[in-house]
């Protein structure tokens, strides 16, 4: 009779994304291989924390009650390195799920980036993204995992050379840890120095010295383990005892990052609710920052017991912040779903969000260069809050920085903008698009530029949404320069600029002719007071949707039909004046000119002509006439 442990292990193929990632790990060269130790120790610490949490509701899982620990064993003679924990462990099915698939969608973005990287950049990328267990294949040509699930009589073995397949199956529990997981790396010849105690100890202390579980090391398989990290929670220590390097090391270990924190926030809240916060704003932008499924990465602890990293402690527009909250008030014996609905957690969420925004305000006021570095990376995400978080909109508008027609390559705040308001200016003007250079040269800006009116240049996708949500600043609404009438007559021109004259009757009749000729293609054709150099431009109707928002919604299939644009013609432009003087004998030329003016305006807006073939034919007829 065949028992479960006698059964032959099954050979399986890795999920396609894992196979691709493993190929990169095995066949690429990175200068910073040390990161694999941080990743494996982080996994081991998580397993211990999960056991501590599950043990609250099922004390039998704790077995002999051994304290959480991680043990690293070195075997120079066998060229092996193992990392063992006494945490929750895995059964066979959990091994397949944890070691055969990629859980985070951001890993795909990492793979795309690393595959395209040049040698100089590729050596940096591995440390910028936590690729967890798979990073061990940078130093190992074979990995063996033995695990014993807490509360189970069964144990399992997983093994792979990282070349596309792995084997998994039951194993005699005597071969596995009494509880938990042992990962054994059969090191490549060039990675043999990872069996040297001095190197491994130094690396662990640097990268994982503040892990919340004690770490021990055995210099040889027969040696007694000695402790190299005490597992004391950094966030429980007084700030005066923690150095900037301590914070940076904890951030890298806890967040799986390799950069340094751009901002560190560590405080203890007391009063109605007591909790400790340790939060970091990264120095670099995560690969999956704009992944629609990406959620926050703040971990929730209750009295140092890890509960979940899915509590959404911060709103989505602050999802780039890493760190943790340790509460003294939340109950330990309720489900994660019930914790999410807790009024205590709601108060914590509000308090942490307010404090973080307040810290960003202080940084913007006192150290603007540091704040602008954060805004460069995360401003487009923070602006999502202008659309989503109405209660904090004014505070977020105060934090927001913008490129404008007056900023050059720098940033401007709305406070800066307000200081430059012109006499009789009743709105904050903006232009929305996808390209800053194209926005800055938009014909719709000409009349504003002539009067020295500053215009915000908004090039992030979210800009099309928040500006339409009734936002205002100090009582002044936001108004698009590409929508509705641009009533600039009340804002004076500079002293040396001549005021525009009234359009001639001939121009008025030509504008009417263009409107009749274009028919249903436009909602109106009118004389423009926003154009000073160009002959024509397109704008959205007064009560319609901004044209950029219209394009975004149409591209997403959420707009069945678009509004007809308004064509504005510059009544003082030489071309319009010439066309208006053509007589009835030039009816064909006038008709071609009307369509070409419309297509010219579309091209200036980044669109194709309405009918490219007809556009080409009309342009050919005009050129033929000009050439005689």
Could you describe the 3D structure shown?
- It is a single chain.
- With 628 residues, the protein is an alpha+beta fold.
- The protein folds into 3 domains: 4-229, Histidine kinase-like ATPase, C-terminal domain (Heat Shock Protein 90), CATH 3.30.565.10; 235-369, Ribosomal Protein S5, domain 2, CATH 3.30.230; 505-626, Heat shock protein 90, C-terminal domain (Four Helix Bundle (Hemerythrin (Met), subunit A)), CATH 1.20.120.
- Helices cover 36% and strands 19% of the residues.
- The chain is built from 21 helices and 22 strands.
- Helix 1 packs parallel to helix 4 (106-116) and helix 17 (505-518) crosses helix 20 (587-604).
- The N and C termini lie far apart (100 Å).
